[in-house]
Design brief:
The structure holds two protein chains of two kinds.
Chain A: E1 5-16, E2 19-30, E3 34-38, H1 45-52, E4 60-65, E5 68-69, H2 75-81, E6 83-85, H3 98-105, H4 114-118, H5 122-141, H6 157-169, E7 175-179, H7 187-202, E8 206-210, H8 214-220, E9 223-228, E10 231-236, H9 238-243, H10 245-252
Parallel strand pairs in A: 3-8, 3-9, 6-7, 7-8
Antiparallel strand pairs in A: 1-2, 1-4, 4-5, 9-10
Chain B: H1 2-20, H2 25-50, H3 58-74, H4 80-103, H5 107-127, H6 129-132, E1 138-139, E2 144-146, E3 149-151, H7 154-176, H8 179-189, H9 191-196, H10 201-227, E4 229-230, H11 237-250, H12 255-272, H13 279-293, H14 298-317
Antiparallel strand pairs in B: 1-4, 2-3
The chains are: A alpha/beta, B mainly alpha.
């Protein structure tokens, strides 16, 4: 692990009407880390993730990724720069097979356009084979090989969550943001997530994790950011966070 | 590959039919109209069924193609093929300029905007009588020529329409099996998910809008030469709605479904004419029944019905 900051967020602010969702939050994610964002319900964790990926426009503040400012970029540009994500309430393409879902994740690695696709020029044919291969590898990596031919619509929630991770990984991201990957999973499924996140980190991908499951967060994180009512409450390594009085108070309502 | 096999069977059947039913009025006249509608339905389905957008101005783009050929060949005596390219260029430009602002809208609002656009273009056909000759339409459109071969007669046009339908089907099947096609389906299922997967959804939607408009325009250009006479009422809002009905009845998101829907809805009135006064009533009842009993569309519904029977037969054998 080295000390290069892969993502730097400065003084981020987001309001919805009169409600302040994120107020003056700054943090930095180091390359190769697992960086977790935790906080009670409604603390603004998902909002923050949406701001980082361009899904929400930020009201003020700056985000730098790999040295480039991405604060005003639309989601697809941010994605093409190497930030990919999953969703808390899933964004699975329900009319497609599992393999196709993950193949969509490879979109940024392909080049064929509308015209060449219409006539199925030789480069499209070659690219299809390559994309299929990449998608199968990503599914293998997440332990989903058995589901390749299934339709996404018929699968249980836990599988869909992993398929989203596979789809994100298929794009070869430098930063992967996971929005509550354990939400809605049972204990067994959650504990299966742990080695997967570690495996992702070990391939050199930086992981941003928004999560409620403290066991998972404390086990896997290198750094933790705690949000409460849209503001930064604490930041540090898991041990420091567990001992932090403000954090304990926020969680126990003290 | 299964899909490709279906495609070859379909193409062969389409081309062999006239050899089986020789001199069939129904096949060459109603059939040709049905195939023209199928071309429009297939292109509209790319935009609606696969990309999940709404368009109520498809007939208008069809009309621009038709009028372009009618006006350029009769008034200015251009070559029909050059007129066709001019039509594609005009449709392409109009749809390209309007695509971005229109496609910012979603759902009902998008339907309203395209509805408006379709009506405006139709009003132009009716009112700009120094160009379009107004509501009377344009007659005396010359025949289409392939070198020295004159394309005329019902049977020849049946083959022309078949080739265009086969071509459009081939294009659509290719597209859907590609990176871009998957991106379109992704937009349909969830735009946010598509965007974070790196898809420039605004651009892609606009591109497909232009593509499908131009597909409609090409079909329109050919239609002008087939008919020899065109008038605004062939390209009104009602026809756009009819096309929409075809792809919904056939099955949104299925190319063969669009074909099926187009052929079904075009030939249905021929069969229903014996009901005379009750024709529209029966027509409506059939549509309602289809939507109640086969909400996924006729094509999907019927193919499921037959696979169900097949499965039962296989079980009995065991």
């Amino acid at each position: 692990m080295n000390d290069i900051n892969i993502l730097i967020a400065k003084s981020l602010i987001k309001n919805f009407g009169g409600v302040s969702a994120i107020s003056d939050v700054s943090f930095a994610i180091k390359k190769g880390q697992v960086f977790s964002i935790i906080g009670p319900n409604g603390a603004g964790k998902t909002t923050l993730l949406n701001m980082l990926t361009g899904v929400y426009k930020i009201d003020s503040g700056t985000i730098h990724f790999n040295g480039a400012e991405i604060s005003k970029f639309p989601p697809y540009k941010i994605s093409n720069l190497g930030i990919n994500r999953t969703f808390q309430n899933l964004q699975i393409f329900k009319n497609m097979s599992v393999l196709e879902n993950v193949m969509v994740g490879c979109y940024n690695k392909g080049t064929s356009g509308l015209i060449s696709s219409l006539f199925y020029l030789p480069n499209v044919w070659k690219e299809e084979k390559q994309i299929r291969q990449w998608a199968i590898e990503a599914l293998d990596f997440c332990g989903l090989s058995s589901l390749i031919k299934k339709d996404a619509a018929v699968l249980p929630y836990g599988d869909l969550k992993r398929i989203e991770i596979a789809r994100s990984l298929a794009s070869d991201p430098t930063l992967l943001l996971l929005d509550e990957p354990a939400a809605g999973l049972n204990d067994k499924e959650t504990m299966e997530l742990l080695p997967l996140i570690k495996k992702i980190r070990d391939t050199g991908i930086t992981v941003g994790l928004v999560e409620h499951h403290m066991g998972l967060v404390m086990e896997v994180s290198d750094a933790v950011l705690v949000l409460n009512f849209g503001s930064k409450l604490a930041e540090g390594n898991p041990l420091e966070i567990q001992r932090n009085k403000d954090v304990i108070a926020a969680y126990l309502g003290g | 590959m299964k899909r490709r096999a279906g495609f070859f069977v379909f193409a062969t059947v389409l081309l062999i039919l006239p050899l089986i039913f020789k001199d069939s009025y129904f096949l060459t006249v109603t059939g040709t109209t049905a195939l023209f509608n199928a071309c429009l339905a297939i292109s509209l389905n790319l935009f609606m069924g696969f990309s999940g957008q709404v368009s109520l101005c498809h007939a208008a783009f069809y009309g621009i193609g038709a009028y372009s050929n009618a006006v350029f060949t009769t008034t200015y005596h251009f070559n029909p093929w050059i007129s066709t390219i001019a039509g594609l260029f005009i449709t392409g430009s109009i749809s390209f300029i309007l695509a971005r602002p229109i496609l910012k809208l979603k759902g009902h609002y998008l339907a309203m905007a395209t509805l408006g656009l379709g009506i405006i273009i139709h009003i132009f056909f009716v009112q700009a009588d120094n160009i379009t000759k107004g509501p009377d339409g344009i007659s005396g459109i010359p025949n289409l020529m392939f070198g020295k071969i004159n394309i005329k007669g019902d049977a020849t046009w049946y083959y022309m329409a078949s080739l265009l339908t086969i071509f459009y089907t081939w294009l659509s099947l290719n597209l859907l099996d590609s990176r871009t096609g998957r991106a379109l389906k992704a937009i349909h299922d969830g735009e946010t998910g598509a965007q974070v997967s790196g898809i420039d959804t605004d651009k892609l939607k606009a591109d497909v809008f232009v593509l499908t408009a131009m597909m409609a325009s090409l079909a329109g250009s050919l239609l002008a030469h087939k008919e020899g006479f065109i008038s605004p009422e062939s390209f009104n809002l009602q026809f756009s709605v009819e096309l929409l009905t075809m792809i919904v009845i056939g099955g949104l998101g299925s190319i063969f479904g669009s074909l099926f829907g187009a052929v079904f809805l075009t030939s249905l009135p021929e069969f229903l004419s014996k009901f005379e006064d009750f024709e529209m009533l029966v027509y409506g009842l059939i549509l309602i029944a289809t939507m109640i009993f086969m909400p996924q569309g006729l094509y999907v519904g019927i193919s499921r019905f037959f696979t169900g029977i097949l499965k039962k037969l296989i079980k009995k054998d065991e």
